[in-house]
Amino acid sequence: MMKHSRCGLALSVLALLSACGGNDGGVLGGSVTTPAPSPTPTPTPTQTAGCSLRERQDWAAAQLNEWYLFPETLPARLDPTPYASVDAYVDALTATARAQGRDRFFTYRTSIAEEDAYYDAGSSAGYGFRLGLTSDGRLFVTEAFEDAPALAAGIDRGTEIVAIGTSTGTLRTVASLMSSGGTDALDEALGASAAGTRRVMQVRDASGTRNVTVAMADFELQPVSNRYGAKVLNDGGRRVGYLNLRTFINTADPQLREAFASFRAQGVTELVVDLRYNGGGLISIAELMGDLMGANRRTSEVFTKVSFRASKSENDEARTFAPQPQSIAPTRVAFIGTGGTASASEMVINGFVPYLGTGMALVGTNTYGKPVGQVALDRSACDDRLRVVALAVQNAEGNANYYNGLANTVPATCEAPDDISYPLGDPREASLRQALDFLAGRSCSPILGMAATASGQRTAGLGRAPERQLLRPARPTPAQREVPGLF
After folding, report:
1. 3-class DSSP state of 109
2. How confident is the model at residue 2 (pLDDT cuts 50, 70, 90)?
3. N or C terminus of the chain: which is more exposed, having fewer CB within 10 Å?
4. What are phi and psi of 244, to 5 degrees?
5. Pairwise CA distance, residues 52 & 60, whole Å
6. β-pair type (458-460, 450-452)
C-alpha cells in the first residue's frame, strides 16, 4: 500500500500514506522530500475518550465522510447497530467502491502501535518467511528473512511445507487443510501472529523431507537483504545493478542510499529493480527511490502527483525530482513485478514511464493495480488507526488509471515466471534472466493483462493465471499488508 505520512499532525494523522496496498509518506530524519501541506479538516475533528463500539463506528463514518476519495459511493446513512465491529461497519460503508474495483479493502482499521512499530523499524512477529500457494494446492516458501526463526531453522526460498501441526502427532497435510477449509484453514493452522506461537512443520527441500519445530519471534525485517538485496552483476561483460527492495519503510532510506552509492561508484547505467513481492509502503521512500534513479532529471521535472477529492484539493501536490549525492542516471531499467507488486512499488514504476519510455520494461507478470493512497486518521485513546483511501497517484503525464495493473501502461513488458528453484538475485532465476535479456536488447514475450475483481483477487484476462499466489490472511497485520505472503 501507499501511505502518506505527511497528512496528519493536524488530525492526529501519522505522516503516512499508501498507494497500493501499503502505506506511504513517513519521513526519516534528514528526508529529502519537500514539505507537503498538512490536510486541514473541515471542521476540525474533536477526539473524545469514548471507546464504545458505537462511538468508534460513528467516528469511522465521520472520517470517511470527511476524506474518502469516492464520497459519491458512501451511503447517505447506514445504521451501525447490525455490525459487530468497526471493521465490519467500514466494510459495509465502502462496499459500493469495492464492488466497482476502486477500493479493494484498501480502507481499513488497524492498530496505531503495531503499524508504527512496522513502519519505523520493520518490527513484526512471525516465522519470518513468505508463503506462496500453487494452483494445485502446494505451499512453498518464496522468501525467508534474515534474523528470523525460519531461516535459522534451515527453511529458505524453495522449501515446500507439506504438513503443519502443534506437534508431530497432530500434523495435517496442506492438502488436507485446503480440502477442509481452504486458505482460512491454512492460516489457522499456522497460528496467530504472536511471539511464542510454535508449530511443527514437515518440510521438503533439496536435502529431503524432515520435521522442523519453529516458534514465532519478534524480528526486524530488513528492506534490503544483506544476502542478495543489492549487487552488481557481470552479464557478458556488462555491469548491471540489481536491487531487491522488499518494502517501503523508514529503515529503507540508509540501505537504499548505500546501494545506489555502490552503483554510482561502479559506473552502473543499467539497472534491475526487483519489486516482485513488494506490497508498498511509505510515499516518502518511493520518492527517494525516484531521486536515486534521477541523477539526470531536472528539479523542475515531476516524478509523481497526488490529488485528493474536490473538497480537499488544497492538499494536491506535484513532487519533483531531487537528485541526491548517491543518485545514478540509468539509461535502461527492468522492473520485476508480480501480482504482489502494489502501491508504492507501482508508483515508482509508473513515475518513470514518461522519462524512460521503451528504455524500461515490466518483467514477470502483471502488477496488483492500486493507483490510490491512504491517509492515516487516529483515535489514539482506542489504538484505532483508520486508513482511508483519500488520494489518487499519477505520473507526470497524469496516468492514474491502472486498477488492472501496469502491464497495459508500461511501454515494454516481458513475461517470466517467479522461479523459486533459484535464490533471489541469482542470474539463473527466470525473471532476473529475462530482465537481463531485456537490458541486453534481446526479445521476449509480452505480459498479457489481468483483471481485478471486487474481492481483491486477480483472475486471468488474456493471459494465464500466476503460477503461485502469495498467501494472505483474512485480517492481516500491518506487516502482512505491506509484505504479501508474510507469516
Report:
1. strand
2. low
3. C
4. -115, 110
5. 12
6. antiparallel
